Amino acid sequence: MKEPFGPLDGALVIDKPAEWTSHDVVAKIRGHFRLEKVGHCGTLDPMATGLLILVVGKATKLSERLMAADKVYDGTLRLGETTDSYDADGEITETRPVPQLTLEELNAAAAKFLGDLLQVPPMVSAKKIDGVPLYKLARKGQEVYREARPVHIYSYRFDEYEDPFAYFRVSCTKGTYVRSLAHDLGQALGCGAHLTALRRVASGKFDIADAMPLEEVLQFSKEELIASVIPMLDLKRYE
């Protein structure tokens, strides 16, 4: 006989605020509502906002499958400055003049990153080497070899450019470092660049339009939380 599912076995679709880690959100929801099992499907950097899928109760078994879905992000990059983390949370390592660029030239440069890519994880990242997160080694001034891993970029397009800020949308496979894309584009343009804003707007069939702000969810009663959970049986259509 199959184990029955309870009202708190399923997924919550959260709009993550800036400055929170994905783990912070999981821990807050777990503690606030006194839940035994809560996980998330795909890490967002603290600076990033947007779609964060939480799995609760028996749905934690589905996290790997839900995490495997393709992602869509909206982002902003700043040309002319390179940072050690490839985003605005890092230290500026180089400043260069920005050439005269048109939106068409930006998109022509971005088009060269479409398709299969090998990405090297940034030193300032949560990727672990021998069990130690890279950012901890970076804080000690250490740089270690990181194996490049394959990702796929389906689309990478800029829709606005106000020197030195460029605004884009990218669709990619899981595990893609969007800040690495920003950094690499800056290198290709010869002026450097780093990511200043990132928002996940889709993950597989999940969409940011269905996400609830974290601060709103934390005001829910237990009954309201249950009503907001996508039940286990419904999650099959999201895989």
What order do the helices and strands come in, and which of them pair?
Elements: E1 10-16, H1 22-32, E2 38-40, E3 49-56, H2 63-67, E4 71-79, E5 81-83, E6 92-95, H3 103-111, E7 115-119, E8 128-129, E9 132-133, H4 134-139, E10 149-162, E11 165-172, H5 178-189, E12 193-203, E13 206-207, E14 212-213, H6 214-217, H7 222-228, E15 230-231, H8 232-235
Parallel strand pairs: 1-14, 3-12
Antiparallel strand pairs: 1-3, 1-15, 2-3, 4-11, 4-12, 5-6, 7-10, 8-9, 10-11, 12-13
How do you describe this structure in short?
With 239 residues, the chain is of the alpha+beta class. The chain has two domains: 10-68 and 204-238, Pseudouridine synthase (2-Layer Sandwich), CATH 3.30.2350.10; 71-202, Pseudouridine synthase (2-Layer Sandwich). Helices cover 24% and strands 34% of the residues.
Describe the model.
This protein is α+β, with helices and mostly antiparallel strands and 239 residues long. It has two domains: 10-68 and 204-238, Pseudouridine synthase; 71-202, 2-Layer Sandwich (Pseudouridine synthase), CATH 3.30.2350.10. The protein is built from eight helices and 15 strands. The chain has helices at 22-32, 63-67, 103-111, 134-139, 178-189, 214-217, 222-228, 232-235, and strands at 10-16, 38-40, 49-56, 71-79, 81-83, 92-95, 115-119, 128-129, 132-133, 149-162, 165-172, 193-203, 206-207, 212-213, 230-231. Strands 1, 2, 3, 4, 7, 10, 11, 12, 13, 14 and 15 form an eleven-stranded mixed beta sheet that branches. It is globular. The model has no long low-confidence stretch (mean pLDDT 92).
